[in-house]
């Protein structure tokens, strides 16, 4: 790890703490010696960073505005990959924001890093996410954010048409298709709806509330428990 990167990480750690952290703890976090930590602390203090504390008691930073954050190459690759996925797979508004974020990141990259970032080994395909998908996603995102009900026509796995009114709770990407997680007012229970099977959708003015028994977090807890039970049963049957 370069010294400049280590110093930024050190400042971030100290800034995030409410209480002092010892040089030994800092050394373990950054995987360097305590002597290196002491030298880095002195360097920061001489540079005007208000590091408080001393050896044996610990250090922290209070009331200090950090300079622009520095990212490692791996962190930049992760951010840009995530931005490309948002740009390709969500709605036009989020896509525009993702594009703006990528433009800002690329604008401040040194030329040698731009070349390495351009060689990112991941390709994000948008072939199956057309304007119809983007429109549906935008309506759903706004309905989820504003907690407003939706009415839509849906075609199930057997191609049977159905009409539903539901409380949209979240959008989940399972690795192949986007899925709407909603509380179906017809079934009075959670239901999953694949976005590519939604034929038409209309946002309603009626609002809904979430609670500990009706939320995306609660749904995910149920799914996790279901798959843990299924996995345990499969293991038991193999014995």
Can you give a write-up of this model?
By secondary structure, the protein is of the alpha+beta class. The protein has three domains: 3-61, Winged helix-like DNA-binding domain superfamily/Winged helix DNA-binding domain (Arc Repressor Mutant, subunit A), CATH 1.10.10; 73-118, no CATH class; 131-231, Roll (SH3 type barrels), CATH 2.30.30.520. 48% of the residues lie in helices and 22% in strands. The protein has helices at 3-16, 23-30, 34-46, 73-89, 92-107, 111-118, 131-146, 216-238; strands at residues 51-54, 58-61, 148-155, 161-173, 178-184, 189-194, 198-207. The strands form two sheets. The protein has a five-stranded antiparallel β-sheet with strand order 6-5-4-3-7. It has a two-stranded antiparallel ribbon with strand order 1-2. α2 crosses α3 (34-46) and α4 (73-89) packs antiparallel against α5. It is elongated, with a radius of gyration of 25 Å.
Essential attributes:
single chain, 239 residues, SH3 type barrels, two-stranded antiparallel sheet, 48% helix, alpha+beta, 5-stranded antiparallel β-sheet, 8 helices, 7 strands, 3 domains, Arc Repressor Mutant, subunit A
- Average the pLDDT over all residues and give the rounded result: 85
Strand fraction: 15-25%
H/E element order: HHHEEHHHHEEEEEH
- Share of helical residues: 40-55%
Unreliable sequence segments: none
Question: What's the count of strands?
Answer: 7
The CATH topology label of the largest domain is SH3 type barrels
Count, helices: 8
Question: Main sheet: which strands, in order across?
Answer: 6-5-4-3-7
